[in-house]
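Dear colleague,

As promised, here are the two records you asked about, laid out in our usual form so they can be pasted straight into your sheet.

NAME FIELD: protein one
SEQUENCE, THEN STRUCTURE:
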Amino acid sequence: MSQVFADRRGRLRGRCAAAGSAAALVSRPANVRYLAGGSPPGSVLLIGAEDDVLLSPRAPGDDPTEGRVDEALRQVVLPSSGGDPAVAAADLAQRSGADGLAVEEHHLSVARYRALGSAAPHLRLADLGNAVEQERVVKDDDEITCLRIAAEITDQALGELLESILVGRTERHLALELERRLVDHGADGPAFPTSVATGPHSGRGGHRPTDRRVEEGDFLSVCLGADYRGYRCEIGRTFVIGTAPADWQVELYDLVFTAQRAAREALAPGTAYRDVDRAARQLLDAAGHGASLAPSLGHGVGLEIQEDPQLSPSAMGKLDACVPVTVEPGVHLPGRGGVRIDDTLVVRQEADGGPELLTITTKELLAL
């Protein structure tokens, strides 16, 4: 893996050199981890003309959520009174002879940016922009393997929950149980706060679990994901509690399922982001639910649960192969509840079988 991280840093080094910066300072934690293999809290990565250095306020530990720092990368642990690693990195770049430093302005606070200029007044600061995030969009085989394992863990945790008795249990209790099951099956932790929504809460995006108890006849919406070696996936399913679902529940579920399938089938290299969104949105809009739809149909996943690309009506750009995304349409009817169906997929060429579905828990409307 050391060569993988070295190659990533090399591509960024070349990009900075072409833009006229001899060095780059990477401070966003997910970007540090992508380039260094690990990101101990507070760490920054200095990409130099020839040498790269990870500066940390403390020595890397064995916490799996921090990753494992590339052994070939030089590491500097600052003394307890060493101050801000970013400021120390700027000073190091200046002392190393660099005349320009590209920084992630979108991640730095104004105060921190000014501190860099004060510590290294002879450095010309430039904006690195989203250079690292853009590199992260297309995943390599190792990254997709981690996402595939994260999805397997998530499917296992959800499948076990569906085999248990649900009536009478609270949303909060079910969410905690799902997160425990994720860890039991090998996750480093949940990819994001698990959402369990019942009855009138169901179908809401990002619903925070409450003490409402599951009742017969409820819709039950669940959204969860595993974090495996830093890579995060997402799955969302909706079920009915009890015997036969009501007619309105079947009708709403079939509508959302049809919209989700249309968007999944639109995933192909060269397809515009907005066209994937449109494939689902036009169906839901035609059924009268356009005003209540989320701003985005889905998004990229990887070292963060929300990353580029965004599948939204205003998004610019086209899909590439080996890009993992979520497809997650939902409809919520105030006072009644609703449906969300969410999958993580990897964009593939048609010759390679089309989009690869990572989350495989059934999308049949089950009565639990």
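NAME FIELD: protein two
SEQUENCE, THEN STRUCTURE:
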Amino acid sequence: MSTLPKVAWIGLGIMGSPMSENLVKAGYDVTGYTLERDKLDRLSAAGGTAASSVAEAVRDADVIVTMVPASPQVEAVAYGPDGILENARRGALLIDMSSITPQTSVDLAAAAKDKGVRVLDAPVSGGEAGAVEAVLSIMVGGDQADFDEAKPLFEALGRTIVRCGPHGSGQTVKAANQLIVAVNIQACAEAVVFLEKSGVDLAAALDVLGGGLAGSTVLARKKDNFLNRDFRPGFRIDLHHKDMGIVTDAAHTVGAALPVGAVVAQLVASLRAQGDGGLDHSALLRAVERLSGAQV
């Protein structure tokens, strides 16, 4: 009999499916719930257990992980008679790995405390590839003791795992992460268009740039997307649009100026308005190409 905690996993999307499967591989008993039947079947095939509702999934769980798109979805699965807080056992640990507003995380932790449920906000960076390879960066907000308890589980999912402060801190750091990633992708996209219009061998150019100061995880991860114009979603423009809204609002609240971030947020929004919201965020290249006169 495993001594590992029983895990309920809510949300089996692009990130949640491989992450939950990595917990199964690490020996955890994982019961999952999501709205899509095929995702539940995938978890079952990987050795997990499919539940028919949030309430059923969390009832006997020691640890509950949520990985859903945004604050409204976190609130939908957490609150109400069929939600996590009404059905989890006292003493359970709720780890929200979604990317949401810091205030939503703070409010959730306060509401959960009244139910005897502990909470960590633990958003991740690394995209689908990082989820599959279990090399995510995990930024955590919450109490130190709860973080220490969750650390072995995090180690089955990621490589860089850091407690950033109290409740909401993980989400604040994730917002900063999304700002950096968006600006980096935009810079890479502009460089790609500049290089191609200059007649340079793009593959060679990106190889040498990746080996110098211009190199980055973003460039390494997205190079093939740029070269092949492959914009199948690893992280959708729709979600990055949501995240840019989070960082813009949070920065306004604390009085931080984000001049470059504000421009990139508008470029992300314009790409979404042109119907590209379902594409990978490397599709910012399409926006630069349009601005440069290409028909895409």
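A couple of things worth noting about protein two: The beta strands are 7-10, 30-33, 49-50, 63-66, 93-96, 118-121, 124-125, 136-141, 158-165. The two ends are 56 Å apart (CA to CA).

Best,
R.
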